């Protein structure tokens, strides 16, 4: 196998790239300016070394803590829980969220060997324990597994006094946060449904409305 | 009339051709194995977007080729529109007026399609899963959100079964709730469907069979609790130890039982083969009538050699009691006495994959 064929084979492992587009890219690279190709190669080579996960939230960053965690103008009482680092970018694009994030690194799915232990739920609990957070927004994808994960976290925190809400199901069922358009996410950020109310705020209402059962 | 022409390209054993239809009733004549059913399947694919015979769509492509397509003209309130079903190297695309559709609901909104086949008797005397399938299919013909509920429930059960094997009580607490919620949605829709469906079914069975019995579908859900999620949840919890022992979810809509009862007894259990065939035909006829009523759309009917199974009287009544339809495709064996149905007009011969039109 020659170098060109080899590259085609490697490129076609990329998401969304079939063998046809892989061949087109490979031919393009062969004809392209050699300085640009070398630059591209070095950027790819450096990527995994220079970009790591933020020690606090799990976001992709070169400096840990990441720019979001170290931005003190953001609302530190609010944490949005997402499945993957790329989900942060999607929500940031809406411009409607000014709190902090927590990346779980996946969802609970025993079929795929993913239990709660495999996710960064422990680190989330630690963050909450260290204080200052009042509200959690769970933005896992509206899949069965995303829902399981959300309910699991709510269950763990049911006596925490935190307000917990979930992105309203404006997202298409079975959809992925990554593919949902900005407007949809923005809308569901505004219309998020409360899963758990802080006990204090319930008391302060006087005659508390009964907590809406999850099911 | 629904379809005015169908173009076939590298589909099953059929020759590439374009067939023009001028009638509401289309008659196809041929020996078995020549391609009649393949043609009905083509019509079904154009209406529904999947096959009634197989889930393995690569079988739809003619041996030795990598792609196939079916293209049809249909009339929509006098306007001619185009619909295309295409498979290319494992990729399926469906287009209406050259616009790719993303949701199957767009397709089903054109015309529902009901296929009557010999295999339908399995819905009556086959395993319980097939009767659930028939009911699921009937609901999804007019309520597409049911498919989402069912998919969600099935996924939850799959995950729950894995959690049972791993004895993860912490996860089972969550899955129990998710199963109760999504399963109850499935159960409620089945109850409602069967209740409504029965009035059509009993009526048609009585009139087509000529028997003086009141046959109806009886639904025995696995969750025999009141229909609240709390009641279902505690029922699931009560059964968790047993589920752990069997390493599988032993209760829920995936274990529902559905049977055919008359005067309090299981009619299908003692029925003759002829009676079972008749029940299966009435099931489909009811499905067609019910779907037409629910969706307000006249269906396209496909009848694959099934008329042969009835005596002349029942056959007449059966045809009389079919709901109003947009178009019907009937297949016959060459020596079947087509004159009983048709005196003149075009008919189509299917021979070794070749379809040719002729006048009677
Ligand atoms: Zn961070």
From TrEMBL, chain A:
<dbReference type="GO" id="GO:0006281">
    <property type="term" value="P:DNA repair"/>
</dbReference>
<keyword id="KW-0862">Zinc</keyword>
<dbReference type="Pfam" id="PF02132">
    <property type="entry name" value="RecR_ZnF"/>
</dbReference>
<keyword id="KW-0863">Zinc-finger</keyword>
<dbReference type="Pfam" id="PF21176">
    <property type="entry name" value="RecR_HhH"/>
</dbReference>
<dbReference type="InterPro" id="IPR023627">
    <property type="entry name" value="Rcmb_RecR"/>
</dbReference>
<dbReference type="InterPro" id="IPR000093">
    <property type="entry name" value="DNA_Rcmb_RecR"/>
</dbReference>
<keyword id="KW-0479">Metal-binding</keyword>
<dbReference type="InterPro" id="IPR034137">
    <property type="entry name" value="TOPRIM_RecR"/>
</dbReference>
<dbReference type="GO" id="GO:0006310">
    <property type="term" value="P:DNA recombination"/>
</dbReference>
<feature type="zinc finger region" description="C4-type">
    <location>
        <begin position="54"/>
        <end position="69"/>
    </location>
</feature>
<dbReference type="InterPro" id="IPR015967">
    <property type="entry name" value="Rcmb_RecR_Znf"/>
</dbReference>
<dbReference type="Pfam" id="PF13662">
    <property type="entry name" value="Toprim_4"/>
</dbReference>
<keyword id="KW-0233">DNA recombination</keyword>
<comment type="similarity">
    <text>Belongs to the RecR family.</text>
</comment>
<keyword id="KW-0234">DNA repair</keyword>
<keyword id="KW-0227">DNA damage</keyword>
<dbReference type="GO" id="GO:0008270">
    <property type="term" value="F:zinc ion binding"/>
</dbReference>
<comment type="function">
    <text>May play a role in DNA repair. It seems to be involved in an RecBC-independent recombinational process of DNA repair. It may act with RecF and RecO.</text>
</comment>
<dbReference type="GO" id="GO:0003677">
    <property type="term" value="F:DNA binding"/>
</dbReference>
<dbReference type="Pfam" id="PF21175">
    <property type="entry name" value="RecR_C"/>
</dbReference>
<dbReference type="InterPro" id="IPR006171">
    <property type="entry name" value="TOPRIM_dom"/>
</dbReference>
TrEMBL record, chain B:
<dbReference type="GO" id="GO:0005524">
    <property type="term" value="F:ATP binding"/>
</dbReference>
<keyword id="KW-0742">SOS response</keyword>
<dbReference type="InterPro" id="IPR001238">
    <property type="entry name" value="DNA-binding_RecF"/>
</dbReference>
<protein>
    <recommendedName>
        <fullName>DNA replication and repair protein RecF</fullName>
    </recommendedName>
</protein>
<dbReference type="GO" id="GO:0005737">
    <property type="term" value="C:cytoplasm"/>
</dbReference>
<dbReference type="GO" id="GO:0006260">
    <property type="term" value="P:DNA replication"/>
</dbReference>
<keyword id="KW-0227">DNA damage</keyword>
<dbReference type="GO" id="GO:0003697">
    <property type="term" value="F:single-stranded DNA binding"/>
</dbReference>
<keyword id="KW-0235">DNA replication</keyword>
<dbReference type="GO" id="GO:0006302">
    <property type="term" value="P:double-strand break repair"/>
</dbReference>
<comment type="similarity">
    <text>Belongs to the RecF family.</text>
</comment>
<dbReference type="InterPro" id="IPR003395">
    <property type="entry name" value="RecF/RecN/SMC_N"/>
</dbReference>
<feature type="domain" description="RecF/RecN/SMC N-terminal">
    <location>
        <begin position="4"/>
        <end position="329"/>
    </location>
</feature>
<dbReference type="InterPro" id="IPR042174">
    <property type="entry name" value="RecF_2"/>
</dbReference>
<feature type="binding site">
    <location>
        <begin position="30"/>
        <end position="37"/>
    </location>
    <ligand>
        <name>ATP</name>
    </ligand>
</feature>
<dbReference type="GO" id="GO:0000731">
    <property type="term" value="P:DNA synthesis involved in DNA repair"/>
</dbReference>
<keyword id="KW-0234">DNA repair</keyword>
<keyword id="KW-0963">Cytoplasm</keyword>
<dbReference type="Pfam" id="PF02463">
    <property type="entry name" value="SMC_N"/>
</dbReference>
<dbReference type="GO" id="GO:0009432">
    <property type="term" value="P:SOS response"/>
</dbReference>
<comment type="function">
    <text>The RecF protein is involved in DNA metabolism; it is required for DNA replication and normal SOS inducibility. RecF binds preferentially to single-stranded, linear DNA. It also seems to bind ATP.</text>
</comment>
<keyword id="KW-0067">ATP-binding</keyword>
